Amino acid sequence: RLIEREVERGTPAARIVLAGFSQGGAIALQTGLRRPQPLAGLVALSCYLPLADRFEAERDPASARVPIFLAHGDADPIVPIARGTASRDRLAALGHPVQWHEYPMQHSVCAEEIRDIAAFLQSVLR
Asked: Which domains does the chain have, with CATH numbers?
């Protein structure tokens, strides 16, 4: 409902980026790729694609080209990087434009990741 409220207030969906860390990233992926109005992009950090087996049937074709920034720490003990790479591979196999970034860290955020997110946001919000 938050996205719809912003659209009603005059922000075009194509200028909105959903972002989240861990469970928030999983929610951003599920929410952003089921929308009939494509968003500007998705940022999903240290997370995974939940319900991946049902995702293909539940995603909205209108959001198939939404740019996705996926990032993960290579030493994440909470959400193992294998979950992140499996999500990346699943999304890419379905044709979603995924940017994958891997960092030497655990379940956290680092300065290099913040710089990469800033560059992604600049590219999708031109």
From this structure: 2-124 (3.40.50.1820)
pTM (two decimals): 0.95
Q: Which residues are catalytic?
A: 22, 76, 107
Query: In one letter, which amino acid is 61?
Result: P
Give the CB-side neighbour count of residue 25, counting CA atoms within 13 A: 22
Please, which contacts does 18-21 make with residues 24 or more away whose CB atoms are closer than 8 Å? 18/42, 18/43, 19/43, 19/44, 19/45, 19/117, 20/44, 20/45, 20/47, 21/45, 21/46, 21/47, 21/109
Output the average pLDDT for the chain: 96
Amino acid at 57: A
CA distance 50 to 119: 26
* DSSP-derived 3-state class of residue 101: strand
18-64 pLDDT, tens digit each: 999 999 999 999 999 999 999 999 999 999 998 878 888 899 999 99
Residue 73 has pLDDT above 90, yes or no: yes
